[in-house]
Amino acid sequence: xxxxxxxxxxxxxxxxxxxxxxxxxxxxxxxxxxxxxxxxxxxxxxxxxxxxxxxxxxxxxxxxxxxxxxxxxxxxxxxxxxxxxxxxxxxxxxxxxxxxxxxxxxxxxxxxxxxxxxxxxxxxxxxxxxxxxxxxxxxxxxxxxxxxxxxxxxxxxxxxxxxxxxxxxxxxxxxxxxxxxxxxxxxxxxxxxxxxxxxxxxxxxxxxxxxxxxxxxxxxxxxxxxxxxxxxxxxxxxxxxxxxxxxxxxxxxxxxxxxxxxxxxxxxxxxxxxxxxxxxxxxxxxxxxxxxxxxxxxxxxxxxxxxxxxxxxxxxxxxxxxxxxxxxxxxxxxxxxxxxxxxxxxxxxxxxxxxxxxxxxxxxxxxxxxxxxxxxxxxxxxxxxxxxxxxxxxxxxxxxxxxxxxxxxxxxxxxxxxxxxxxxxxxxxxxxxxxxxxxxxxxxxxxxxxxxxxxxxxxxxxxxxxxxxxxxxxxxxxxxxxxxxxxxxxxxxxxxxxxxxxxxxxxxxxxxxxxxxxxxxxxxxxxxxxxxxxxxxxxxxxxxxxxxxxxxxxxxx
Length: 557
Ligand SMILES: CC(C)=CCC/C(C)=C/CC/C(C)=C/COP(=O)(O)OP(=O)(O)O
Prior knowledge:
mainly alpha, metal-binding, Terpene_cyclase_plant_C1, Terpene_synthase_metal-bd
């Protein structure tokens, strides 16, 4: 029942007030309508048939390769080329066999093969096996420094550099290995020009641990092709699979562009950012596989509604209007529609419709609990956005602790992680939703990384308008430190949070390991979007190239 103090009863009086709103001029979409239309590939059927034949060849290779060093190289190539999702069972069996054969590490090391040892360590850690980093002490002198011979082994250093990014808190040997290899690899860069130099350059820009699987496939296909020992069937499969996926992704983007156009956001809600294509890049980073197509479509709708809500709370809505919207979202009922200001009706109706559509699908499978938990997180999100609006309204700068308790929710990642599981068919149970909604360490680390990287990248622009103080401003004010110092501290904290993610990815995990990939991939997106600035709102040259190569240009070669 409506309480007397409910903000819903105040909506009528608001209409008569002169309303002063923030104005933010987000530039229009740089992509125009180019993704609206989609034409199916003519050759799709026979290409799928060929891909199936190639898959069987690669599967056989995974089964018959018995030499462990060679098997690791094959698995690494399969993973980097972006086709590992076809062979999850085989890869798990192979790596489990290798883990059982060598235990935590001592049995693996036979010679001074730093490259092989690092590869062994990285692949097993990536698969969740807690192998010991102590193995790398064998490459150190008695005084604790790395041996001179390590410096001369460029491939070994590159492999160790990538492996060290699997570090967890307290692994000093990996911290040191990272500093050592980063320093010496950077020195090499100044002296040579070759394929290995290109690889070093890319590794130093972004380690494999933080790269998005689709972009890594694009990057690695030409490198693998140049390797004398490459396998022709695997290379062909990687190229064909990329093309088939690109076709499916274009189809989905066309579908979602039509949905957005039908909402007519640019006319009905002109203050909202139009970033459908950049948003699809974000979602594609979470899931790219064909079996997650329904999940992607739902995520696109639900996440673009998050953007609409974010812009409404951050920029356009008055505090009184936002109170009403928040209350209506808590009640989640079409009966609240009439109480809302006109422009908010479209937002509210679409929000309820998108979840109703999901619920109808889930009902048939007895999985409506998935919508229940996710809706509760949307309600929590709205309540916390309202707290931010209150701070802005009262010109209040919160303490860092207050700020984080609210903005870890409004960064939206925990809610988006829950959304990733709504239409996922395998492994998800009610426990999965209970897990994510309590902000366990991995989810919290992912939220923190987004919050810190987003704020470092966007706080200057946000402060030019009447935006809530970012974590950067709060920290500077509370501790009386400079912006530069704050950026440095936050960058260090991001690395520490990655250690938490690595630790939480080791077996036994809280939820089945494949369910950790959406939060891990969401964390990786931060490194792509916010490392150089704000590539979501203002896609730079590199981001535009990423989108074009994933969604527009045919794969070359
Ligand atoms: C499909 C799609 C749209 C995906 C986006 C994923 C998503 C909703 C991320 C939530 C965080 C967010 C709103 C970031 C950008 O806005 P901001 O920098 O204004 O965020 P802030 O207001 O929290 O600082």
